[in-house]
Amino acid sequence: MECIINRRAQFLASHRYWLPELTEAQNVEKFGLCAKFPGHGHNYVLFISMSGELDEYGMVLNLSDVKQVIKSEVTRELDFSYLNEVWEEFQATLPTTENIARVIWNRLAHHLPLVRVQLFEHPQLWTEYEGEKSSLTVRSHFSAAHRLAPNLSAEKYGKCTRTHGHNYHLEVTVEGEMDGRTGMIVNPGCLHEIVEREILELFDHSSINEDIPYFSTSHIVPTTENIARYMSDLLQFPISQLGVKLSRVKLFESEHLWVEYEGKDSEIFFSVAKGFSAAHRLADPNLSLEKNQTIYGKCSRINGHGHNYHLEVTVQGEIDSVTGMSVDLVGLNQIIQHYVIEPMDHSFLNQDLPYFTEVVPTAENIAVYISNILRSPIEELGAKLHKVKLIESPNNSCEIYARDIEESRVDRIYPELAAV
After folding, report:
1. What span, in angstroms and rounded, lies between the C-alpha atoms of 3 and 365?
2. Active-site annotation holds for 386
3. How confident is the model at residue 410 (pLDDT cuts 50, 70, 90)?
4. Between 20 and 30 A from 173 (CA), which of 185, 199, 258, 322?
5. Is 346 tagged catalytic?
6. What is the pLDDT of residue 417?
7. d(Cα 84, Cα 78) in Å, to the nearest integer?
8. Residues 231, 237, 242, 243, CA torsion sign
9. Are 292 and 299 in contact (CB under 8 A)?
10. Which listed residue (198, 392, 398, 399) is catalytic?
11. Long-range Cβ pairs for the range 197-204 (8 Å, 24+)
12. Known catalytic residue: 34?
């Protein structure tokens, strides 16, 4: 069973964008305030994503070991440093967020089964590096009103057919080749300007049904799905003029509901976030206390411990031409509530869920279990489960992609779940 695990780290560092072959005026023109002497700094937040098969103990890797590798190879050297001088890789190519992520990948790839390095310069700007693939994301927000009309009935969709509003958050991700000297795939200031001009000026403080011609002159319902697809259409050409490719538009209606559109006709990814509080103990009932302590450390203490789990369920679907929706949201929420939240919230997983009397409730195993029990009910809604992400703490999370799910232990141990 393939699983992705994520480990968070952070470091505080300064840097300066300055090329000695350019004049001061040219550096300022190219890099703006980032060229100022002696530099500036950030609270960098780093997420290292690794992939592998679950072992007999329900883990991809021991995250305590991962923590030490990241510390020894990366954060110990970068924390409280001047990046331009700390690593030789930053002599030829400036320590931009993109290049820092690339170099971190190269330094960790010999030690960990990497699939992604994500580096936040601040909450509105970050990069992802996946081997040879580099992307940059900018985040912005706008406030707007809408109503799910005229094609949706008040009987089924209730208050959403009345005019209401949201503080939307928009993430725009682009992909491109990293410049070997500047370390950039695109000037983030130019990308921000395009988002401001093409999206924010049009949508901010608007009533989308009436003020946006795309919606006011048609029967297209301004669902989050349709808004994201329209934004992608608006951004495609101007972003291409920067020499990069628009990779993804991610639109948050709230912190509990968002969509991701990748420009593939009517295909879209729809996500909802839920929470549950649960206790667990990491211990194999077939092993001794000493052996469990060796494998799981503090997590094996006999009375257990607990977390406020954060669950993200992502489904893949097609945007319906009439409703503008990719999945029945009411039905999706009911499924998650029934199959996950009600049995797991305020429970001791090892004792209260029969499955975990035999399977150690690591975050990975919990995510696999949730993926298996949600798959069939979601398919009955006309959508497809794409991903389950379970955040156990700010530092640790895991992801299960439905394409990687085979006949898992859930089906073998509890065959009735396979038919759910």
Report:
1. 9
2. no
3. very low
4. 322
5. yes
6. 43
7. 11
8. positive
9. no
10. 392
11. 197/238, 198/234, 198/235, 198/238, 199/140, 199/142, 199/170, 199/231, 199/234, 199/235, 200/140, 200/142, 202/234, 203/142, 203/144, 203/168, 203/227, 204/142, 204/143, 204/144
12. no
Q: Enumerate long-range contacts of 57-60, CB under 8 Å, 24 or more apart.
A: 57/284, 57/295, 57/296, 57/360, 57/362, 58/282, 58/359, 58/360, 58/361, 58/362, 58/364, 58/365, 59/362, 59/364, 60/3, 60/4, 60/5, 60/113, 60/364, 60/398
Residue 157 confidence (pLDDT): 75
CA-CA distance, 116 to 399, in Å (whole number)?
A: 12
402 Rama sector, left if φ>0, alpha if ψ -120 to 50, beta otherwise: alpha
Tokens of 84: 């331009």
Q: Is the CB of residue 419 less than 8 Å from the CB of residue 359?
A: no
From 89, 166, 299, 307, active-site residue = 299
- The CA-atom distances, in angstroms, between 402 and each of 1, 264, 269, 349, 378 are 11, 19, 13, 23, 12
Q: Which of 141, 346, 358, 407 is catalytic?
A: 346
Q: Helix, strand, or coil here: 60?
A: coil
Contact present, 235 and 140 (Cβ < 8 Å): no
- pLDDT single digits (tens) 57-92: 999 999 999 999 999 999 999 999 999 999 999 999
Q: Which long-range contacts (CB under 8 A, 24 or more apart) does 256-260 make?
A: 257/224, 257/329, 258/169, 258/224, 259/224, 259/225, 259/228, 259/326, 260/228, 260/314
Q: What six digits make up the tokens of 225? A: 């799905």
Segment holding 22, helix H or strand E: none
Under the banding of pLDDT at 50, 70 and 90, the label for residue 149 is confident
Asked if 255 and 310 touch (Cβ cutoff 8 Å), the reply is: no
Handedness of CA 158, 164, 167, 173 (dihedral sign): positive
pLDDT at 403: 81
If you search the block for the tokens 């029945």, which residue do you land on? 328
Q: Express each pLDDT in 103-141 by its tens digit.
A: 999 999 999 999 999 999 999 999 999 998 999 999 999
Q: Which residue has the tokens 């608007």?
A: 206
Residue 165 near residue 146, CB atoms below 8 Å: yes
Is the four-CA dihedral 98, 100, 105, 106 of positive or negative sign?
A: positive
